[in-house]
C-alpha cells in the first residue's frame, strides 16, 4: 500500500497536491468559502487555538492569518499547558482544537475544559469518527485520508488549508477583508496544488544535500512572520525521524542567544520567501554566514537573486502569495527531514519512542 514508495512518509508527502485539491473542492468551491452556517465569527472577541506537536504549529501559523485577515485577538497554546493552567474563559471566545487523530489525550481534555465555557468549540480533525470530532460543537474534517507515517505531513498542510479558509471567513464575517483581497487570497489558495507539485521537484536536490545534513550534530531553522512556526515544524520533523538535534527560531531571536552555537559544522536552514520582511531575515542570515555557518536558503527566484550568493546551498521555490508561504514551504521542510533520515538509515515511518496517536498524557 505504499504505492511504489519506499516509505509511507514519502507517499504521504507526495500526496499533498491531491489532498489539497480535494480539500479545496470542499472548502473553496467555485461559489466561494464553504463552511457550516453555524460557524460565525461576528460575535466573538477572541480565538483560542489548542493542539499538540505539528498540529500546534499549524495553529501557530493560523494565528498570523486570523490576526491579519480578521483583526481578532488570537491565542495559541499547547494542550498540555492549556489544560492545567486552567485559563479564564469567556463566552465570547471561540475555541479551535486541531488534531490529526482526534484522540490526543491532552487536546481532548482541553476541549472538555472549554466545552461549557466558550461560545463554541470547533474541531479540525482528520478522523471524523474520533472523540475530538464527536465532542466539539462543530467538526471540520481536513479530508487528508489515512496518514500512516508517525511524522505528520499531509495532515499538516490540510490543517493549514482549513484554517486559512476559516480565517478568511472570519475576515468576512467581521467586515475586515475587502472583496478584492478576499478574491486574491482565494485565488492564491486555489493555486496551491500546482505550486506544491512544482516544489516536489526539489526532492532530488534535497536528497543530495541530505547526505551532508546527515553528518550534522545540530541543525537550526530560521523563519520570520508566518514562516517562524514553519521553522519550528521543520525542526520537529527533522529531530523526530533523523534523531538529529534541531531547533527552530524566529530569525530576529538569533542574536539573543542561539547565534552562540554557530560554527562551520552547523547547518542553518533559512525559510524565506521574498516577502515584506525578507531584508531583515537576510541580515540575520548574513550574521550566520559571517560566523561560517552552513546556510541553506529556501526562497523564490527573486529572493535567491538578492541573497543567494555565499550560501552553502539554495533551494528555488515557486512564488506564492505572502500569507500562504508556510503551506508551500512545508514541502521542502518535510523533504529535508525525510531524506536526512533516509541518509542516516533510521526507521522513517516508525521512529523510536514515538506513537502515531498519543492517547495518554
Ligand atoms: O493526532 P494529533 O494531530 O493530535 O497529534 C499531535 C502530535 O502528537 C503530532 O502532531 C506529532 O507531533 C507528530 N508526530 C509530528 O510529526
Structure described in brief:
This protein has 361 residues and is an alpha/beta fold.
End-to-end gap: 31 Å
Number of discrete helical segments: 14
Q: DSSP strand (E) fraction?
A: 15-25%
User: Which molecules other than protein and nucleic acid are bound?
Assistant: 5-amino-5-deoxy-1-O-phosphono-D-mannitol
What is the CA-based Rg, rounded? 20 Å
Kindly state the mean pLDDT as a whole number? 96
Write a concise keyword list for the protein shown above.
transferase; glutamine amidotransferase; globular; Glutamine--fructose-6-phosphate aminotransferase [isomerizing]; 14 helices; cytoplasm
Textual characterization of the structure:
The protein has 361 residues and is α/β, with parallel strands linked by helices. Helix 3 (53-70) packs parallel to helix 7 (154-173) and helix 11 (227-242) runs parallel beside helix 14 (325-344). It has a five-stranded parallel β-sheet, sandwiched between helices. Strands 7-6-8-9-10 form a five-stranded parallel β-sheet, sandwiched between helices. It has 14 helices and ten strands. Helix 5 links the parallel strand 3 (93-99) and strand 4. The chain has helices spanning 8-14, 16-27, 53-70, 79-85, 105-114, 131-135, 154-173, 179-190, 192-200, 203-213, 227-242, 278-290, 301-307, 325-344, and strands at 46-51, 74-78, 93-99, 120-125, 138-141, 218-223, 245-250, 267-271, 294-300, 313-317. The longest helix has 20 residues, at 154-173. 5-amino-5-deoxy-1-O-phosphono-D-mannitol binds at residues 52-55, 99-101, 104, 107, 150-152, 240, 354, 357-358. 5-amino-5-deoxy-1-O-phosphono-D-mannitol is lined by residues 52-55, 99-101, 104, 107, 150-152, 240, 354, 357-358.
